[in-house]
Fold:
Amino acid sequence: MSDKQDLESNDSASLTSWKKYLFTDIDGDKATAPLSAYCFMTGFIDSVCFSAIFVWCAFQTGNTVQLALAIARLFNGQHDTSFHLADQQALCSLITFILGATIARIGDKMGCKTRAWLALGTFIQTLFTMAAAIAIWKSGQGSVADVRDNPAWNNTLSFVCIGFMSASMGLQGIMGKRTNTQFTTTVVLTTTWCELMTDPQLFDIRRLVISRDHKIMAIGSLFVGGFLGRALLDAIGSAGTLGVGTGLRFIVSIWWLFVPCKDSEAVTDNVSITLIL
Structure:
């Protein structure tokens, strides 16, 4: 009887230890690698979307202006009341981006900087990317558009793909912003460029400057992601490229579980106790 009670006590202590580990806030300064991967995925996913329909699924500034121009056409004297395909795609991207960002409110309940939420939220992004890959694969559409007036995607399943890609970027943007680091949203880098150019230590190249160096890493990661995304697109198509993106996002979701917290010694002790038990 005593042995059974000891075993139950050990199991309870182990569960408590793991729960404390998962719901501990990470140290944003030590999350450089997964946040760089976020920026990489922004370029990677956007390369697929823009190459096919000339719409950004992560950069909603352009989509918002595009919709404003669509409304302005109603008053230009020509009475153009048609809803152009490009405007439909931009609206789809904007709405689903907002819906994806809304999902990030789950992090407010779990703790927006906890390992548990960062891993779960990234896993949700993984599922969205996988759904986008399946949708565009089933659609039978092409991967690269020659001109803006003739997008490669134009059927219903392609809209589903756009929606899932945009939702994944909306969720990623809020999660990146809530970590409160120099990487900001990991989605919109116009602000990152402005902050980099106004950094008072921009040209202090003799030492490491986090406020400057992390912004350079964010920009560089996005550029590399866009480059590799387009290279894969030419080789294996949209569905295959999004499949690779799914795998990369799954790796990042696991990665978050091993980011240290600010009190790393306490976390190490907790894990050690759990392993012993």
In short: The chain has a mean pLDDT of 85. The chain has ten helices and no strands. The CA atoms of residues 51 and 135 lie 17 Å apart. The two ends are 19 Å apart (CA to CA).
